[in-house]
Amino acid sequence: MGFEVQYRTHTCGELNTDAVGKQVVLAGWINRRRDHGGLIFLDLRDRYGLTQVVCDPERSPEAHKVATELRSEYVVQIKGSVVRRAVENENPNLSTGKIELQAEAIEILNAARTTPFPITDNVQADESLRLKYRYLDLRRPSMRNNILLRHRIVKIMRDYLDERAFVEVETPVLMKSTPEGARDYLVPSRLYEGEFYALPQSPQQLKQLLMVAGLDRYFQIARCFRDEDQRADRQPEFTQLDVEMSFVSEEDVMSLIEDLLITLIEKTTKKRIKQRPFPRLSFDDVMSRYGTDHPDLRFGLPLVEITDLAAAGTFGVFKSALAAQGMVKGIRVPGGGSYTRKEIDELTEFARTLGAKGLVSLAINASGEIKSPLTKFMSAEEVQAIIERLEGQAGDLLLFVADSAKVCNDVLFRLRTKLGERLKLIDPDEMALCWVVDFPLFHYDEEGQRYDAEHNPFSGMDEAHIERLDSDPLHIRARQYDIICNGFEIGGGSVRINTAALQHKVFSLMKMDNEQIQEQFGHMLEAFEYGAPPHGGIALGVDRLVMLFADADSIREVIAFPKTQSAIDLLMGAPSPVEEKQLQELHLLVRHEEKR
Amino acid sequence: MGFEVQYRTHTCGELNTDAVGKQVVLAGWINRRRDHGGLIFLDLRDRYGLTQVVCDPERSPEAHKVATELRSEYVVQIKGSVVRRAVENENPNLSTGKIELQAEAIEILNAARTTPFPITDNVQADESLRLKYRYLDLRRPSMRNNILLRHRIVKIMRDYLDERAFVEVETPVLMKSTPEGARDYLVPSRLYEGEFYALPQSPQQLKQLLMVAGLDRYFQIARCFRDEDQRADRQPEFTQLDVEMSFVSEEDVMSLIEDLLITLIEKTTKKRIKQRPFPRLSFDDVMSRYGTDHPDLRFGLPLVEITDLAAAGTFGVFKSALAAQGMVKGIRVPGGGSYTRKEIDELTEFARTLGAKGLVSLAINASGEIKSPLTKFMSAEEVQAIIERLEGQAGDLLLFVADSAKVCNDVLFRLRTKLGERLKLIDPDEMALCWVVDFPLFHYDEEGQRYDAEHNPFSGMDEAHIERLDSDPLHIRARQYDIICNGFEIGGGSVRINTAALQHKVFSLMKMDNEQIQEQFGHMLEAFEYGAPPHGGIALGVDRLVMLFADADSIREVIAFPKTQSAIDLLMGAPSPVEEKQLQELHLLVRHEEKR
């Protein structure tokens, strides 16, 4: 007992001209050492900033002697007095830029080997090296700022919801496996041979049960897990802001979340919100105009359908798409009329890799002259009608895809994104948010020969459409809302089903038999019989949100310890083999498959 | 689009005399229905309170008609006007007790079956029924209040730490298995045959790596997992407030946490803190005085060693304990001099079940007369010396155990607790907190023939004791501190090792070879070579803390969805068998053992 050590009196971001003349102690890492005119200059770094330290052999030979040993990333404690820098030596980029510390004593608290990459922002190191040495990567200012921003965003979320009577409830991580939805991560039980827990894909069921419990307003910053192949920017575990409310309609949830998002953007970024209130677009509209249900609204370039006009003339590409119940859809590239053959070929090749048979182009040169294969197969009026539909101007390029609706939309959605970037239509300081609503409740799963929930089987549906459950399930509108930011789906939710009969009917349409329904969702159906209030909610993807706020390229940049795209933790070395004893206790054998 | 439904204008806890005359809409659950004098009275309940509703067939025959159909736990929406209750009908226990709602329209939003137990606090239902219907159990006011209290405690923790520049960082749940410590829950990898992730027992390593990363002050409300047999009040998953700080000594961590705990108690309870600042007791002292390292300081009854005095005389029980290098320790039971033979026998039996061979008693009756087997084998002076050592008074009972130190302490620790309750020495409104420090770094594990870390292998040690690593490991003092409240260890932490050489030495003493050290902890040792600052931290058990604050009997009462003592989720039905396809994808076979 008797713990008197004090490592520092101030942090490295704290001292300014008010402190001049004071004796202080700082501790931190050597960010840089320069030897200049007999003096040694040290930049001492901690999370809070940088302070310049001068070691003068005349004033303190001992401190100077220790300083000669210091190398980058050494951890030191420095005692000294704060002096004002000469005006010409001030550094306006540092909060401590008007002062420096005259070192009187330096103690090396820990030495450091040469780091595998420099601790600076413009690091060229391979991502796998950065992940293996994540504790060094996180020393870089941009990474540190991402982690601090994430903390701040999540803190504001919590404060905002707490002020509005929401209760944060921790739901279990050891849950029950359900074959519905994505693939579960399983956790073998030691006590029950052959039985498993599953990690939650979301706390969906439990948050609904909390509404049945009368908690009224729930939220949680919840860890969720999906064992999916890690194409795209995904992680095996991710974080969502999970919200559920009782006695609400869509409007209540959407206006709450809209206001929360505005608050977050205003408090943590300098970004502008493109449109307030956020536009609300129907699923049909966004699919038609943008070919996707998560459109980037920072720029225009809408897709335009010309299926009706494409029926005219004798152009084979159009004709065969129409014959196969397909469609023809185009996009206008402003100023693209001067693209070279090579540029157009590149775009065509891009479309081909996405599944299109090709692109039909129509260039209008500066003097209004038209260059297009269409002119051979259509009358001038017919071509003109198409140009007018797309609002083509002199100097523009029009590009068309003739195919199934799915291919048209997929290809033109990505082509639009590519053109938006190429034409520099995207303002990086702008946040374009919108709601997408009026989703269909079901789609038809050809492979499984059944209806499947477009979002999740708990989504409610328009009262007036309930009767279509028997007659026309594909035309039931879900009480679903997705929130989109700059082309990313950052969240989604719905007003839920709250009666057992309706919930049972939805499961039946998904081709579950009574036994499966009881086994997997019996507890939900039962809960709905004990007084389930009307309720609805939403989940926002925290990783993606922070990524957008931080202008990061990947969610891995805003997660302290992410896994690779192939689900490996390079720092800890996970997953890894375990001891035979552990497997025995879990009643498991590894099934060694033949290597192919 | 167009979401206009509004289910309520106020909550059921909100209306008071200010609202008299207003038209309002409430929504909630029927808590109780009474038919009285032609009127129907409804208590409408939501999370926020109760509001009395009157249905008068004269004023609104329709509302009255609906009211006749209502039963407990129906979910309804009621429109009406707020009226003042007659003074004699006021209910001072309700925030809404001076008003009632005159119903004008009632809509049944959802019906309810009769619940398996009543939604009231004094419920006699079996715990397994309560867990199966947790969504109903959570409707009971005491359970709801526990969940709300938990939210509030955790919110205050976060606010407190955020204000002090701590950053909350989410660490992964899919981690690497290490054979050290408790048993891991494993998660099989689908992508890597025969490999596994493990759920973290704590974020210990990652929080230390965050210090190496320069994050300076970290915290997390972290979910932790241990696959241990669920004796006592444990859960497979539990929550801790995890804290780590750089450039600190014990004092910094302890004073921060002490102030946080005081803040929490003052803001969320009406409890008194017995002593401030919290006493700091050494491990040796508490083991000696209380027989445990987590003493309940709400009452006295210290244990007193009399090994030296027991050497006198010829009492065989004492003699044989001493001959076996044991000790003799006693406790004074104030007023116990009048206990009957039967009462003393009961205490003796209790001691026997805990492993003692028996209890030696010494009763002093009101007139100072002594009744004890000791009087036959010791002189009056020798007996008197023992009485004086225990500060025995007329009317007291002294009880002794003669055995190994471990048995003496175990038995007297529990006997002391039992006596504290029996003698009603415990004030339920008092919080007695203390720090226990000066722990040994190692104990010797006879079975494994090795030294094992008393707390965890990352704990630092007194500088002056480092040399004992080679000569006398059992007498190294750890820089460890535990925080105890009312006899429960609610947290513990240490100042850590931050150099690779020292850390390696500790692992070696634990009989790990170089390969094991590299395989399991190579990343930690490597990190310590890149400039690891001095650092330390602590973890507080959130479940236990909330339990103590809520005066609950078990942590299951303060967890929204706990598992049973045998690790079963009775609500969801987990663990459960999974489909063969899932096992195949995970390269696993279940090893069906012969049933015995």
UniProtKB/TrEMBL annotation, chains A, B:
GO cellular component terms, A-Z: cytoplasm
Main location class: cytoplasm
Gene Ontology MF: a single term: ATP binding
Gene Ontology process terms (BP): aspartyl-tRNA aminoacylation
Source organism, top-level taxon: Bacteria
Ranges where the record places region Aspartate: 204-207
Site entry: Important for tRNA non-discrimination: H36
Enzyme class: ligase
Location of the Aminoacyl-transfer RNA synthetases class-II family profile domain: 149-562
Chain sites annotated for binding L-aspartate: E180, R226, H455, R496
Purpose: Aspartyl-tRNA synthetase with relaxed tRNA specificity since it is able to aspartylate not only its cognate tRNA(Asp) but also tRNA(Asn). Reaction proceeds in two steps: L-aspartate is first activated by ATP to form Asp-AMP and then transferred to the acceptor end of tRNA(Asp/Asn).
NCBIfam families noted in UniProt: aspS_bact (TIGR00459), PRK00476.1 (NF001750)
Protein name, entry field: Aspartate--tRNA(Asp/Asn) ligase
Organism from which the protein derives: Tengunoibacter tsumagoiensis
Gene that produces this protein: aspS
